[in-house]
Amino acid sequence: MIKEDELSIKIMESKIIFGKKINERAIDFINMGKSRNDSLFIELCFCILTANTSAEMGIRTQRTIMNGFIDYPEEKLRDELKAAKYRFYNKRASYIVGARPVRKNIKKLIAGMDHFSLREYLVNNIKGVGYKEASHFLRNIGIFDFAILDKHILKLMKDYGYTDNIKLGTRKDYLEKERVFNSIASVYGLAPGILDLYLWQIATGKILK
For the segment 23-34, what is each residue's pLDDT rounded down to a tens digit? Predict the structure, then answer.
């Protein structure tokens, strides 16, 4: 209970100090969700890039390549990722090229499915996209039903007694941790994707995407 009270204080402090900035970021996400297919696909590529690396690296790489995610041949995309000092340039170039068939219909896909079915579709049909990456993409286009259970969020959950471990080896592991996170979000009256922003700020001192 003491640890939970400590977290409550940290969230309240973050809301007071960073609430306006986080609300602005949420609006940015909603506006991204109104974008055209190409911009949505580039954002999906960003989320593919953030797996097992930092958000900062994903952002820098996305800004460097942008439309290259859409039209570079795989070899050139691989070389550009390598030049950007992105670690997993071979696999991620392959994943992004493999994801391209979804680009032309991604907006219709988003509009035509409920959010949970949409996430399952992304996980099951795009190589390199797991639950974390799919949740990240959906949050970044203004769908706040999901948090991004990365190492920072999981460590915070463990530190404050909400979970005994940070294991995410299976679908069951992820969904169980997500269920706990969503119960925390409900207590604070926040959508999971918004509480995620507050907890990430608490854990890292940063508000990114």
Answer: 999 999 999 999
